[in-house]
């Protein structure tokens, strides 16, 4: 490890975004495609969720396959100067390839990163923000100089294809950033990350089977328990409250105000949720980033996919102060700000 920088006043360094990449499986699945096998319609899905199409893993494609592709693109984006110094891989996912071990070591190995530290972080739709806090902690503590943070989920593998209330929402994908040690005042520096959870509401979004609770019962999983169950209306309400509150706290912790926010990059859960959160925060429409229409809810991957897509299409440019916020199962939520750096998605 080579530690070239200190933060302001000789304090710990900040973590700074040095590269970004994203990947979704090929062949979009349209609302019409879903309506051929489910009692739903393009009109219902669009009006309730804002989604037109999404990507789903191909037969045999697992989370690590998505993660490796997004990670490779982020390393390319960062360039050899930073890519060659990556000394840790953090993978945010709720759909590891296997129950044991973590998927990150295999991803690091397949990316040619040798024997670097590698582990998974499990925070469902808030995975990228929990991963960002974790990766930043590795950098500020001096454990790593450059971290490859990947957020990847093959979440459709947890969704009952016959359940129209979840099958139309969730999708698969991966996004990644390279973080390096730098100064808190330079573009790309990650502001304080605000996190929270409420385990009393774990039952609002859960996969009851397959974990130690079911295995220790000595009983086989009941049919259907291997799939996600979601209380849609309650989830909606908590998502709005938690993302709006976390956003306010993250902006305050960063020492700025909501009027200073140039772009809102909220977890792409549902277009109506995004609109309501932005209205609560007073962020006008032209400052809201969104790609939910073509990607659906890609769980942990949602925010880095959105950032990469937006940087590619020009809706997010260097110098923009971006507010990131996420909410999901756990319940778990988070928010942070970052002044967008001059990086070209890989
Ligand atoms: N197509 C057609 N009808 C559907 C449907 C679909 N894909 N999914 C549900 N419905 C039906 C329901 O069965 C129900 O029918 P009923 O009145 O005959 O019982 C009706 O639509 C209304 O269901 P309801 O759940 O009350 O609808 P809603 O307006 O709350 O919208 C969600 C449902 C899921 C779109 C909405 O609750 C939501 O977006 N919740 C948040 C989900 C989310 O973002 N989760 C991820 C968080 S990270």
Number of domains: 2
Order of helices and strands: EEHHEHHEHEHEHEEEHEHEHHHEE
Mean pLDDT: 95
Structural class: alpha/beta
CATH architecture of the largest domain: 3-Layer(aba) Sandwich
Detail the poorly predicted runs: none
Distance between the termini: 25 Å
Structure characterization notes:
This protein has twelve helices and 13 strands. The protein folds into two domains: 175 residues, Thiolase/Chalcone synthase (Peroxisomal Thiolase, Chain A, domain 1); 146 residues, Peroxisomal Thiolase, Chain A, domain 1 (3-Layer(aba) Sandwich), CATH 3.40.47.10. The protein starts with 13 loop residues before the first strand and ends in a 7-residue tail after the last strand. α3 crosses α5 and α9 runs parallel beside α10. The site of coenzyme A has 22 residues, from α2, α7, α9 and β12. Keywords: Acyltransferase, Cytoplasm, Fatty acid biosynthesis, Fatty acid metabolism, Lipid biosynthesis, Lipid metabolism, Multifunctional enzyme, Transferase.
């Amino acid at each position: 490890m080579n530690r070239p920088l200190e933060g302001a006043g000789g304090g710990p360094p900040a973590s700074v975004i040095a590269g970004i990449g994203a990947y979704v499986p090929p062949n979009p699945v349209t609302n019409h495609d879903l309506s051929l096998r489910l009692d739903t319609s393009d009109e219902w899905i669009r009006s309730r969720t804002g989604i037109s199409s999404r990507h789903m893993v191909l037969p045999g494609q697992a989370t690590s396959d998505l993660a490796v592709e997004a990670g490779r693109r982020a390393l390319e984006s960062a360039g050899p100067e930073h890519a060659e110094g990556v000394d840790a891989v953090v993978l945010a996912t709720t759909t590891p390839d296997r129950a044991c071990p973590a998927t990150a070591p295999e991803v690091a190995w397949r990316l040619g990163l040798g024997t670097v530290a590698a582990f998974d972080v499990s925070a469902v739709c808030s995975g990228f923000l929990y991963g960002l806090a974790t990766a930043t902690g590795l950098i500020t503590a001096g454990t790593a100089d450059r971290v490859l943070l990947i957020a990847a989920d093959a979440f459709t593998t947890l969704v009952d294809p016959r359940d129209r209330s979840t099958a139309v929402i969730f999708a698969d994908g991966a996004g990644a950033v390279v973080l390096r040690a730098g100064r808190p005042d330079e573009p790309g520096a990650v502001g304080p990350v605000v996190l929270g959870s409420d385990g009393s509401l774990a039952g609002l979004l859960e996969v009851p089977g397959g974990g130690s609770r079911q295995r220790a019962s000595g009983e086989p999983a009941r049919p259907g328990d291997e799939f996600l169950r979601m209380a849609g209306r309650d989830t909606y309400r908590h998502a709005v409250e938690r993302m709006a509150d976390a956003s306010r706290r993250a902006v305050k912790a960063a020492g700025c105000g909501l009027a200073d926010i140039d772009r809102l990059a909220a977890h792409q859960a549902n277009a109506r949720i995004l609109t309501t959160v932005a209205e609560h925060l007073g962020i006008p429409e032209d400052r809201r980033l969104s790609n939910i229409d073509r990607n659906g809810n890609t769980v942990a991957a949602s925010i880095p996919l959105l950032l990469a897509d937006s940087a590619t299409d020009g809706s997010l440019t260097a110098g923009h102060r971006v507010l990131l916020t996420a909410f999901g199962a756990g319940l778990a939520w988070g928010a942070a700000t970052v002044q967008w750096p001059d990086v070209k998605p890989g």
